[in-house]
Amino acid sequence: MNSKALARFLYSCVPGLAAVRFAVKDLTGAYFAKPEYKGVLLLSVGGGLIVDVGANRGQSIAAFKKLAPESHIVAFEPDPTLASKLASRYKRVQAVTIHGCALGQYCGAAKFFVPMYGRWNCDGMSSTDRHEATQWLRDPGRMLLFREAKLKVAEYTIECRTLDSYGLTPQLVKLHAQGAELAILKGSEQTIRQYKPALMCAFPSVAVTELLADWSYRPHVYYNRRFIPGIAKRPVTFTWYLTENHVRQISVSVS
Prior knowledge:
single chain, 255 residues, Rossmann fold, four-stranded mixed sheet, 9 helices
């Protein structure tokens, strides 16, 4: 039996179980971050700016502050509840700024969808696209005894901005936005072309890779303390996108 599918089934049936599990994960997030985050150690971030797009419960913020403690972080989280919790947690930390809005290709209002399966509030799958917000749960093997009737979706209207509208000067941009990465990048073109930050993108589509190739970025996988050219394969979440300037400055394997 798939243990993760069983665990998700239990989250949907036992009140509070998912909340306890993720609270523990939040407390230990800085120590058990995904291995690909360690790619930041190869960059000369120092006191520079990291932009975290899709901050969720703050896992990436915790990882970045551990790996690049002098960095400043500007984080974006469109889920109103999660954004409020993050803002409260970091209100006394000057090096961390939280924006409770979505990023996209254009500024304006946007629909935001938060799935709930049984008693499990699946905020990690929230998206500005209803299909993206629900398809993960429907995939075979991810939920034991999946039943469509248990799946509900809350809909919100939220603010959407472009990254370009903030006038930031990032050295690193992390994107994890449940399928909205391409639109976010298009709304970040001026910033990315001008400042050439390193990028780490969750589960990139072919369209994302093609767009970034036009901007002189090439995909890499962080593995064994170095970058290897290529697209990350599941279960690895993030592919890094680097320019030739990044490659000259850091360790990249050509094997």
